[in-house]
Design a protein that fits this description.
This protein has 588 residues and is α+β, with helices and mostly antiparallel strands. It is built from 20 helices and 14 strands. It has a 4-stranded mixed beta sheet with strand order 3-2-8-7. Strand 11 and strand 12 form a beta hairpin. It is elongated and about 105 Å long.
Length: 588
């Protein structure tokens, strides 16, 4: 199913001349320089094809004759390759191994083009015959530093003639004929497209661009031991054409300039639609909604329009409205494919595979944001928190590099499939709250989402966005009570070095029966101090009444609270704390 969907995606893009999808027998590769030679094969210059990306120069992605798979040994590419093959020297110098690579490059060129009459090819042959690989570094550093050249990929062009030599008509025909004649693989019925009597792909092109994977790429289809062989076949029944199609499509989705991939933890997620759809352009933004700036510059106007569109879409989804009200040309019935990949040595692990209508996926994402929704601590905090910011709330020091990659991948999977959140999410969030004595907006949102989706209590009342004074759950009331006692202490002893939260939040949420009797006794001293101040007498009466109202709703302090009830305790604390400051703003 995965290979078939990727094969269909390739066929769809191949029909679009503007898609840049390479034809069979070619591949998109990272090329840094073009060697300029004259008719006699003399090197006249070098074009720098690299493109500026921030402060870096990155290779340009260009269609070239299909790259070989180098698992071992010496294998040259046709009319393009690294310095070791084109010049016979690299960072290690003109070694014997590089001599073999240089000779392999010439041999392949001779095999493919021996009967082709093209002046440009004659020039390339002349260049290779004249080239002295022992002097490669001294000759080439006239054009660029050797450090930039020794590991780069090169193509050829003739001085004064537009285009590259591998793009010429006779050269393309020669290459196409070569790959057809050199295919001695057995003929099979392809399990991807169903075609019969087609050559079997012996080695599939590696998949590159998966975060954490090998730079040479990995495979999602491969065999190397009899334990993985089915029905006596040592290779998958995939044709050369189908293997080219699915690997080319997947590599295009994973490319650095693609908007159809996102990285979450150790998992790289790619996505595409069955037919052209705006959904392919906006899906990544649903995991990291762009912020709307009040005074955006003209240069950022397009970005702000996109941000407003995404925000409107999320509002519509969360409230159950039709998405076409926001994006008229968005067909929510279009079939959508999502593939999660993780590195696994030389192979790639498929973490999950989801196929559904885009509307169904939007509904799950809307449900996720609805479960997250809680009153924001500060107005500048995002209404739709990006997943990466939520994940940082589970990590030591709040750093992204400390986020558990497995946790991140499992949360993403839960969002997309509607499954429960991973069980270790709750204890991780509680651990960070205890460690830092701080319940942030993001942590409160995570706790609310987890309890709403995962709770085992059948009688759990829906958790509201703001303070619910009618709620009678014991843990929620205990969290509210702790917040009130803390606030009374803050007003009675402003600027205290260690607050009640710093000392008792962890123990009060885990073992309220051991802690609350003591802090309630302390609170009487705080309220008494407020009552002695003529300007704060009203506040003393306010706290006394609020404490009594909360305590009247439960009859005992439990000795311990399980993890889920600790989460509800923290939400009660957060709601009450937020309510104190909200009231101040309203009064002012």
């Amino acid at each position: 199913m995965i290979l078939q969907a990727l094969n269909s995606y390739y066929e769809r893009l191949a029909e679009d001349a503007e898609s840049g999808m390479p034809a069979y027998g070619t591949s998109i590769e990272k090329i840094s320089f073009a060697l300029i030679i004259d008719d006699s094969g003399e090197l006249k210059g070098m074009d720098d094809l690299r493109e500026q990306s921030g402060k870096k120069l990155l290779p340009r992605q260009i269609p070239v004759p299909a790259a070989v798979t180098r698992t071992f040994g010496v294998k040259a590419n046709f009319l393009w390759d690294k310095a070791a093959y084109v010049f016979g020297a690299d960072v290690e110098g003109p070694t014997d191994d590089n001599k073999s690579r240089f000779e392999s490059f010439q041999t392949l060129l001779q095999e493919v083009c021996q009967d082709v009459e093209d002046n440009a090819l004659t020039s390339v042959f002349a260049f290779l015959r004249k080239w002295n690989r022992l002097e490669a570094e001294s000759v080439l550093t006239k054009y660029h530093p050797w450090d930039d050249l020794c590991n780069a990929n090169f193509v050829f062009r003739i001085d004064g003639v537009p285009g590259y030599i591998h793009e010429r008509s006779l050269v393309r025909k020669a290459w196409s004929k070569h790959i057809q004649q050199s295919d001695s693989a057995p003929h099979i019925q392809c399990m991807v497209n169903g075609e019969k009597n087609v050559p079997q792909a012996r080695v599939h092109t590696p998949i590159k661009g998966v975060r954490g994977g090998q730079t040479s790429g990995g495979y999602i289809v491969s065999y190397n031991a009899t334990a993985f062989v089915s029905y006596g076949q040592d290779k998958a029944a995939v044709s050369e054409m189908a293997a080219f199609s699915y690997t080319t499509a997947l590599n295009a989705l994973l490319s650095s300039n693609s908007r159809q991939n996102i990285v979450i933890g150790d998992m790289t997620i790619v996505f595409w639609a069955e037919k052209p759809s705006p959904a392919e352009d906006i899906f990544a933004d649903l995991f990291d909604p762009p912020e709307i700036e009040a005074n955006a510059s003209k240069e950022n106007q397009d970005d702000q329009e996109t941000a407003e569109k995404i925000r409107g879409l999320l509002h519509a989804v969360r409230e159950g409205r039709r998405v076409t009200d926001i994006i008229p040309d968005l067909d929510d019935s279009v079939r959508f494919y999502i593939l999660g990949l993780s590195p696994n040595a030389a192979r790639l692990s498929i973490r999950f595979w989801e196929v559904d209508s885009f509307g169904s996926l939007l509904k799950r994402i809307g449900q996720y944001f609805d479960q997250l929704s809680i009153a924001r601590q500060f107005e500048n905090e995002p209404e739709y928190p990006p997943l990466w910011r939520l994940l940082c709330q589970t990590a030591a020091l709040g750093k992204s590099e400390n986020v558990s990659p497995v946790l991140a991948g499992n949360i993403a999977r839960a969002i997309l499939t509607g499954a429960r959140f991973p069980q270790n999410l709750l204890p991780l969030v509680l651990q960070r709250i205890r460690s830092e004595h701080n319940i942030t907006y993001f942590r409160a949102a995570l706790l609310k989402a987890y309890l709403t989706r995962n709770t085992t209590a059948t009688n759990l009342k829906e958790i509201t966005m703001t303070l619910d004074v009618e709620r009678t759950d014991g843990p929620y009331l205990l969290g509210r009570l702790f917040s009130v006692l803390e606030k009374a202490q803050e007003e009675a002893i402003p600027g205290a070095n260690a607050t009640m939260k710093d000392r008792y939040l962890s123990s009060a949420s885990a073992t309220p029966g051991l802690v609350f009797h003591m802090i309630l006794k302390n609170s009487t001293n705080h309220i008494a101090k407020l009552r002695k101040d003529p300007e704060k007498t009203g506040r003393a009466r306010y706290f006394e009444k609020l404490i009594q109202d909360i305590v009247d709703k439960f009859d005992h302090f439990p000795s311990t609270l399980p993890a889920e009830e600790q989460g509800l305790f923290m939400i009660g604390y957060y709601h009450q704390r937020k309510n104190f400051f909200t009231k101040k703003i309203e009064e002012n």
